[in-house]
Write a structure and sequence with these properties.
alpha/beta, Rossmann fold, single chain, binds ligand B1N, 3 domains, 9-stranded mixed beta sheet, globular, 36 helices, about 850 residues, 6-stranded parallel beta sheet
Length: about 850
């Protein structure tokens, strides 16, 4: 398809007369809305409730998206540019309607339209369920990158899984325990996806792989289980452009409905067994982040299902990518000139042996030709250096599920180790360290090593993290392959969702102040720097502060309606929201809160009256099997119960754990924060992305010298952030001290000892319950709470002092937002496109 060819079929005019464009006028929109209510939903004015009205609005918006999506895909087919494919097991999209309307430029028109029909747009937006197909930062990053790719007109497709159940819904029991409930997000029809029941691939598991005896290195893989992958496409609109990219999610289904032999023999359970096992593959998102499946404390079947998810998804995606490439008629050796495949962490690493398998066994290329193509196609992003999070798969499991792939992995390893041996003769330790196979019972495949050697380039997600990748987990690989393969792309966030949508008042004030059109600065975020000129403008500062105040009131209303709790809004809002994990140190925060409470209790009323009022918010989910993380939640909830009820202190300190953290809850919390906490042990948080979102919304940052906090401080200046704690190079020594020369807490950190004793003594109920949590600090203290507690408390005091000078605080807030240009995901995605994938912007023409 070139665009110059003659009209493909029928009469061009008749076709064109039937085609719709994007609705522009309020009257087009109301017409489309009413049509959908009437014919898609079978409802009318008499029986359309808010949820139905949301659905009608969504269907009207979807039609507009589809017009642009069709044009974009045709444009790509015609121009055939190189494309990038973003393979991610997680896409944490959140809600879609508001973003779709913003990007289409139709927010105002839809608002007016639904009003004419008797609805309020804000209420309708609230009816949409989050698409929560992710755990946390890694999945949300993928969503931001899709938004930026489309907005910057870069040809990127996402590939993931269409889980029936996303991340579990979190409930908190009366005792303060996390309970998990399923998230049936597909209960209602999902207007944002397009089922492509005709786009299917067969994926094989188990069976036998027989190497051919002709010396070609090829093999024949047969037998086992065959499962179908069915495509569901999600439209990804760019902001203020026609470009609407695609996210393709695979759903598993049985190859045959049921086994007719068993059925005819009257054995109905056996007849549907295989179809149940096929459907199970995409049934649920794994809720363990930062936990290798090997440590996830699951039965073998559980691990096997995760491995099957990974292969199912990579095999279907690669088959689809190759089919698209083959349609162009180019020779297979040109593949890397037309496709760049980005591996989002090691989860899709099986794509490397899978592409080798296709090229060798099916395309009949030689090993060297195939390896040449593979290593020019893949790119690998590492998202963590925590040892327990590095993926490893037991060799016997891989052999059972993917016998041909294990052969290929062993062959890759053999050629690789031969090359290492040649460069470093006789260095057996090095060979053992670098091998794709870790010795042990059982042996294990090291997925990060495979991803590294199979990729053109490797990157970390913030400067410090990328340096740690180069100097720790992949040090040997840097020495072997050269440092230029190992880069950095600091993460970013989309300013569309994380500023304009979640904080439209601030966005409007910025537009008015800069006198730059919103559609310009939202795509060129460095323009925010213009705000610096207004820090001395008193009127501007007052408006800035008033918006923050209204955002705090909006959050308070949200807590009131959802939890029935009354939050005071004349206080500093201090927020820590992220997955619960020991390395993120929510424990440090809650122990700090208790310390503050004890201090307030010890004061006279007159002394107290001089203190800052503060409300502390926590939110976040714990992996269901992560006992210590769940205990931390329990402690927070029970501390809140005591503190909020204490008449002496409740005017000065309130504490809330908001259940069921989600993208949508983040959109309410982030704009309301005065200060947010990013307090991981130095060297453990690869980047963090919520830190960027808070700062973009004028919240100040309290954090350790870790991840992207460092680059945020570089941008906004160290006097506008609150840093504390030991630095990364000290961590190893401190851990050694804990292990071999432990000092009793009473001696090392009396303030912390006092807090721990009060918890043990039952100040927050059932003291004994918390002992396992407290013991992680008393013994070993792997995350260095006893080392950082005093400087943490000192930093909190500096935050209090700074907040007392409200005018200066607001200046810091403005300066922070002004310097956040670097952290737009547009910047990040353009770096990937230019320095990694070698892609060009391809606007719809
Ligand atoms: O990826 C984010 C970073 O901003 C965070 O610092 C980092 O912690 C996060 C296994 C992960 N790293 N690793 C994961 C997720 C799911 C899973 O099954 C690991 N998530 C991160 C974006 O770069």
């Amino acid at each position: 398809v070139t665009g110059k060819e003659k009209w493909p079929k029928g009469e061009e005019e008749v076709w064109k007369a039937g085609m719709r464009g994007v609705d522009k006028d309020v009257s087009d929109i109301t017409k489309s809305f009413v049509n959908h209510a009437q014919t898609s939903l079978a409802r009318q004015a008499y029986n359309l409730d808010d949820f139905g009205a949301y659905e009608a609005a969504a269907l009207a918006a979807r039609d507009d998206l589809l017009v642009n999506w069709n044009e974009t895909q045709l444009n790509y087919t015609r121009k055939n540019p190189k494309r990038a494919y973003y393979l991610s097991l997680e896409f944490l999209m959140g809600r879609t309607l508001d973003n779709a309307l913003l990007n289409l430029g139709l927010k105002g028109e839809f608002e007016e339209g639904v009003k004419k029909l008797g609805f309020n747009m804000e209420d309708l937006l609230e009816k949409e369920r989050d698409a929560a197909l992710g755990n946390g930062g890694l999945g949300r990053l993928a969503a931001c990158y899709l938004d930026s790719s489309a907005s910057q007109e870069i040809p990127v497709w996402g590939y993931g899984l269409r889980y029936q159940y996303g991340i579990f819904q979190q409930l908190i029991s009366p005792e303060g325990n996390q309970l998990e409930a399923p998230d049936p997000w597909l209960e209602h029809q999902n207007p944002w996806e397009l089922p492509r029941l005709d786009v299917t691939y067969e994926v094989r598991f188990y069976g036998h792989a027989e190497r051919s005896s002709d010396g070609s290195g090829r093999a024949n893989w047969s037998g086992g289980q065959e499962v179908m992958a069915v495509a569901y496409d999600v439209m990804i609109p760019g902001y203020n452009t026609k470009t609407t990219n695609n996210l393709r999610l695979w759903q598993s289904k049985p190859k045959r409905g049921f086994d007719l032999n068993s059925f005819n023999a009257g054995n109905y359970e056996a007849a549907v067994e295989s179809s149940n096992s096929a459907a199970a593959i995409t049934s649920v998102l794994y809720p363990n982040d930062h936990t290798s499946t090997d440590l996830a404390n699951e039965a073998t079947v559980g691990k096997e299902l995760r491995l099957k998810q990974q292969y199912f998804w990579t095999a279907a995606s690669l088959a689809d990518i190759l089919r698209r490439f083959k349609n162009t008629g180019k020779p297979i050796t040109d593949f890397p000139d037309y496709a760049a495949i980005q591996l989002n962490d090691t989860h899709p690493t099986l794509a490397i042996p899978e592409l080798m398998r296709i090229l060798i066994d099916e395309e009949e290329l030689s090993w060297n030709q195939a390896w040449q193509i593979v290593t020019n196609t893949f790119f690998y992003t590492n998202h963590t250096v925590l040892p327990e999070a590095l993926e490893k798969w037991a060799v016997p499991l891989v052999e059972h599920v993917l016998p041909r792939h294990l052969q290929i992995i062993y062959d890759i390893n053999m050629y690789f180790l031969q090359a290492v041996e040649k460069k470093f003769p006789g260095d057996r330790d090095r060979l053992a360290r670098m091998s794709l196979i870790e010795e042990g019972y059982p042996k294990q495949v090291r997925m990060a090593h495979l991803a590294c050697i199979g990729s053109r380039k490797v990157n970390g997600v913030a400067e410090l993290h990328s340096e740690l990748v180069r100097t720790t987990i992949l040090k040997d690989f840097v020495e072997f392959e050269g440092v230029s393969k190992f880069g950095n792309v600091t993460n970013g966030v989309t300013p569309r969702r994380w500023l304009d949508q979640c904080n439209h008042e601030l966005s409007d004030l910025i537009t008015k102040t800069l006198k730059i059109e919103k559609k310009v600065w939202l795509k060129d975020l460095a323009k925010l720097e213009g705000l610096l000129a207004f820090t001395e403008d008193k009127n501007f500062r007052e408006q800035w502060a008033a918006i923050k105040q209204r955002n705090k009131e909006r959050l308070a209303r949200h807590v009131q309606t959802t939890l029935g709790l009354t939050v005071r809004t004349d206080a500093m809002f201090d927020v820590q929201i992220k997955r619960l994990h020991e390395y993120k140190r929510q424990t440090l925060n809650i122990l700090g809160v208790i310390h503050r409470y004890l201090t307030l209790k010890s004061m006279t009323p007159a002394e107290r009256s001089k203190c800052n009022r503060k409300v502390v918010f926590f939110a976040g989910k714990a992996a269901p099997a992560y006992y210590i993380a769940k205990l931390t939640i329990r402690l927070i909830v029970n501390v809140a119960r005591v503190i909020n009820a204490d008449a002496d202190t409740k005017d000065f300190l309130q504490l809330y754990f908001l259940p069921d953290y989600s993208v949508s809850l983040a959109e309410v919390l982030i704009p309301a924060s005065d200060i947010s906490q990013h307090i991981s042990t130095a060297g453990t948080e690869a980047s963090g992305t919520s830190n960027m979102k808070f700062c973009l919304n004028g919240g100040l940052l309290l954090g350790t010298v870790d991840g992207a906090n460092i680059e945020i401080a570089e941008e906004v200046g160290e006097n506008n952030v609150f840093f504390f704690g030991h630095l990364t190079p000290a961590v190893e020594d401190l851990r050694y001290q804990h292990a071999y020369h432990p000092v009793p807490i009473e001696q090392k950190c009396p303030a912390l000892a006092k807090v721990l004793n009060e918890v043990s003594a039952g100040m927050f109920g059932d003291g004994g319950v918390y002992e396992p949590l407290l013991n992680t600090i008393r013994q070993g203290d792997y995350y260095l709470l006893t080392d950082d507690f005093d400087s943490y408390i000192a930093a909190l005091a500096m935050v209090d002092d700074a907040y007392l000078d409200r005018d200066e605080w607001i200046k810091k807030s403005i300066r922070t937002t002004a310097k956040m240009g670097k952290f737009s995901s547009d910047r990040a995605i353009l770096e990937y496109a230019e320095s990694y994938w070698n892609l060009e912007q391809t606007p719809v023409s």
